[in-house]
Design goal:
single chain, 11 helices, alpha/beta, six-stranded mixed β-sheet, Rossmann fold, 2 domains, binds NADP nicotinamide-adenine-dinucleotide phosphate
Length: 282
């Protein structure tokens, strides 16, 4: 286990995750393992910040020595309106999961979630470029995935969601390659896809799947971004159908690794981060 051995001093740089609630967040475990693996004098804590105090927190951030911030629910959209600048992806999504404090004091918002999913596919040697992907869900995570898959060269991005109007709002992010899939067309869309991503919350803490049995086949790579449990019912169905599977820890770790690079300029050891996350989830 990679653990911080040096004492925290006045020179130690601090990064935090802000959200409400934050007690269950895995980010402190993952990021502290990452800082240790990089050998940098940084530490990371979870800070509950209510919606009422979010503006005051951003003011504090400007005038304090906090060096990096992860943003989680329910603040991702609100923070996009509070920082000084947004990178392209955060601007397209109007959503921020990472704040970087630049040397000139400017606060810049980034969104690393969707690119984390693309990194997870690359880690499994699955090509994003030219792929045909079916995204289940149209919430915040699905939006970031559609945006990243389009920027990274997917050929076709099919979106299916319980609330069809929300799926339609994701189509502009797909840069002309997006199609909404109705319930009636879902089986055909699965047959037409190579990668299937569950970006709904179905399966989080419950033994449920967003898909019925018998619709997946050996040609599919199935990604579940739900990470509690890691081996979801969907991934069990996919394994039985001979699919390759990627669990929710991969996106979680890779989006955090991107945050580390933005803050410290160093690429952390993904294996140490994974070990820490798996221990916390066990
Ligand atoms: P969100 O904005 O609340 O969106 C939830 C999505 O799930 C919506 O599309 C919603 O459909 C759908 N949904 C919820 N219950 C459903 C049901 N019973 N049947 C069908 N669809 C249902 O949440 P989010 O932020 O996108 O997060 C989604 C999941 O991904 C969560 O479990 C979250 O923990 C996980 N996540 C994982 C990572 C990672 O790094 N691995 C990152 C972000 C999120 P409607 O639009 O019809 O309500």
């Amino acid at each position: 286990m990679t653990e911080r051995r040096e004492p925290i001093t006045g020179r130690t740089r601090l990064a935090v995750v802000i959200g409400d609630p934050v007690e269950q967040s895995l980010s402190p475990v993952i990021h502290n393992a990452a800082f240790s693996s990089s050998g940098v004098d940084w530490t990371y804590a979870a800070l509950r910040v209510s919606s009422e105090t979010l503006g005051a927190f951003i003011g504090l951030l400007r005038g304090s020595s906090i060096s990096g911030v992860s943003v989680t629910m329910p603040h991702k959209d609100a923070v996009a309106g509070l920082v000084d600048r947004l990178d392209d992806s955060a601007a397209a999504l109007s959503s921020v999961n990472t704040i970087v404090k630049k040397d000139d004091g400017q606060l810049v918002g980034y969104s690393t979630d969707g690119d984390g999913l693309c990194d997870a596919l690359r880690e499994a040697e699955v090509s994003v470029e030219g792929s045909r992907v079916l995204v289940l869900g149209a919430g915040g995570a699905a939006r970031s995935i559609v945006d990243a898959m389009a920027r990274n060269g997917s050929d076709a991005i099919l979106v299916h969601n319980r609330t069809v109007a929300k799926a339609q709002r994701l189509v502009p992010l797909a840069q002309g390659r997006g199609t909404v899939v109705s319930g009636d067309d879902l089986a055909a869309a699965i047959r037409d896809s190579e990668i299937v991503v569950n970006a709904t919350s179905v399966g989080m803490g419950q033994p449920e799947s967003p898909l019925p049995d018998g619709v997946l086949g050996p040609k599919h790579v199935v990604v579940d971004i739900v990470y509690h449990p890691l081996r979801t019912v969907l991934l069990q169905q996919a394994e039985r159908s001979g699919c390759r599977t990627i669990d929710g820890s991969r996106m979680l770790i890779h989006q955090a690794a991107r945050q580390q690079v933005l803050w410290t300029g160093r690429r952390p050891d993904v294996t140490s981060m994974t070990r820490a996350a798996r221990r916390a989830l066990a």
